[in-house]
């Protein structure tokens, strides 16, 4: 057999690894003016340190998207609470059904007990069979009572969980609504502020006549004509 060279078999994998590294270097090479970051490969896709260096006047889109991301997180938390509430309500419904069936069984056992006791009191049937059946019914009723007590306890506990989750869901809905109201660009609140009762103004007191020149209308007003002079008395006849 012709011996194979081990050097050639070791060279091929080394060349393949080198070629792979070169290709990855070309693919992951940063664009001109940008720093190299592995944030897109491990963890966050965008380097937080680079994002922190973005000027404030250019962060409008970032702030808006960050707010929407926070809103989405709050809605996820609300959805989980609603899902948990629905599960608890399903548990409550299942327990309520089991308790109703147990109560129906208790009523049936009570009916059978009343029947066999009436039969035995009337001296009907075999005495031993009657006593045996009454004993079995008492045992079944004891077990049924214990089952109903356990179901009632679980039902009450589940009801507490359901009421607590309902309150938490209601509070979370208010929190999410208030959080959404702070969305950038949202219209201001239309709530009308209470208006104060108008206070009547005090009665105006007559003020003194202003000093200084009279208005033009009064200055230009013509004075009234003087009254006519009285007629002269007739002359006395001196000759007489």
Properties at a glance:
about 240 residues; mainly alpha; Helix Hairpins; 5 helices; about 60% helix; rod-shaped; disordered C terminus
Report on the architecture of this protein.
The chain has 240 residues and is mostly helical. It has a domain at 82-181: Helix Hairpins. Helix content is 62%, strand content 0%. It contains five helices and no strands. It has helices at residues 6-27, 48-52, 60-121, 127-181, 216-219. The protein is rod-shaped and about 100 Å long. The relative contact order is 0.06. Residues 26-43, 190-223 and 233-240 have low confidence and may be disordered.
Q: How would you summarize this macromolecular structure in one to three sentences?
A:
The protein has 240 residues and is mainly α.
């Amino acid at each position: 057999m012709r011996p194979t060279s081990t050097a050639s078999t070791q060279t091929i994998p080394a060349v393949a690894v080198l070629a792979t590294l070169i290709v990855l270097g070309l693919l992951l090479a940063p664009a001109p003016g940008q720093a190299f970051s592995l944030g897109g490969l491990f963890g966050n896709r965008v380097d937080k340190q680079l994002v922190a260096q973005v000027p404030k006047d250019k962060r409008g889109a970032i702030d808006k998207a960050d707010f929407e991301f926070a809103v989405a997180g709050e809605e996820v938390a609300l959805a989980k609470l609603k899902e948990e509430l629905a599960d608890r309500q399903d548990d409550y419904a299942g327990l309520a059904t089991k308790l109703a069936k147990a109560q129906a069984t208790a009523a049936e056992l009570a009916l059978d007990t009343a029947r066999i006791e009436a039969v035995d009191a009337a001296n009907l049937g075999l005495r031993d069979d009657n006593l045996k059946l009454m004993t079995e019914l008492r045992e079944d009723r004891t077990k049924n009572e214990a089952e109903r007590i356990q179901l009632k306890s679980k039902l009450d506990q589940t009801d507490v969980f359901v009421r607590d989750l309902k309150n938490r869901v209601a509070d979370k809905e208010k929190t999410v609504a208030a959080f959404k109201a702070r969305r950038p660009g949202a219209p201001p609140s239309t709530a009308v502020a209470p208006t104060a009762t108008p206070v009547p103004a005090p009665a105006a007191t007559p003020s003194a006549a202003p000093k200084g020149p009279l208005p033009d209308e009064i200055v230009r007003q013509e004075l009234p004509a003087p009254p006519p002079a009285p007629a002269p008395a007739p002359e006395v006849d001196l000759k007489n």
